[in-house]
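Priority: medium. Attachment 1 of 2:
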């Protein structure tokens, strides 16, 4: 007699494998058929429900990607993804974080090379929208750090923020495909790359293009570097940037919300 854990594992595997796969056949031994429904039919009912719900979650998280490729293409792409990527969380809001990486290797989407980064921007928007808010950094507590310890400070980005870099103007693609957008819908892919911060202030969402200096400061902080290393990285990457001007602005905007030693 198989354990409950084994049967549950079979059920999960049978949802995402091919309809005639080995897990479905083995699981069928534990299913009592009903008139007109074989054990495989019972599994098929759950499979359709689970896959449809996951694909629906993707369409809600990635509405711009859906608009760019159309419902039929997106549905086929989403169903391919969900068959390969079972959900590992009871929260559907956490599903689909690697959809952009999947699109990058999805051959039918190869003619839209910017689509993976559009998906990554939409995921960043989704996570920022649902992220925990943070209290502003207290400048007085920062001022109390002794001068000989300031190089050890680690600044932390607000949890309701995400950095994104692309070789395509994905912020512009995202903008012109918003429902409320009313303007010139043309996008020139030759405009070049962009560095972005997606962030939230209260209930207001923002996407801000970043200059080179600000990008490297935020990225270096996000990567867990102390202040001395942040300054070294900035000098190497953007020697004309002034950390004494950048840092106060990041604190004032709330993009840096805390620090530790």
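Attachment 2 of 2:
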């Amino acid at each position: 007699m198989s354990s409950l854990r084994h049967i549950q594992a079979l059920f999960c595997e049978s949802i995402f494998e091919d309809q005639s796969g080995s897990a479905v056949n083995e699981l069928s031994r534990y299913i009592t058929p009903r008139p007109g429904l074989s054990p495989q039919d019972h599994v098929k009912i759950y499979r359709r429900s689970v896959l449809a719900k996951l694909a629906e979650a993707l369409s809600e998280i990635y509405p711009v990607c859906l608009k760019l490729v159309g419902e039929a293409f997106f549905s086929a792409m989403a169903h391919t993804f969900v068959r390969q990527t079972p959900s590992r969380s009871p929260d559907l809001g956490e599903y689909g974080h690697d959809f952009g990486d999947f699109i990058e290797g999805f051959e039918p989407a190869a003619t839209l090379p910017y689509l993976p980064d559009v998906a990554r921007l939409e995921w960043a928007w989704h996570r920022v929208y649902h992220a925990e808010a943070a209290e502003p950094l207290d400048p007085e507590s920062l001022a109390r750090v002794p001068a000989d310890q300031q190089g050890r400070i680690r600044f932390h980005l607000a949890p309701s923020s995400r950095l994104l870099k692309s070789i395509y103007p994905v912020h512009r693609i995202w903008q012109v495909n918003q429902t409320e957008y009313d303007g010139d819908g043309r996008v020139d892919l030759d405009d070049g790359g962009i560095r972005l911060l997606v962030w939230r202030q209260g209930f207001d969402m923002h996407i801000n293009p970043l200059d080179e200096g600000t990008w490297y400061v935020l990225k270096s902080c996000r990567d867990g570097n102390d202040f001395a290393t942040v300054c070294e990285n900035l000098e190497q990457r953007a020697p004309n940037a002034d950390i004494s001007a950048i840092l106060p602005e990041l604190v004032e905007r709330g993009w840096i919300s805390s620090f530790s030693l």
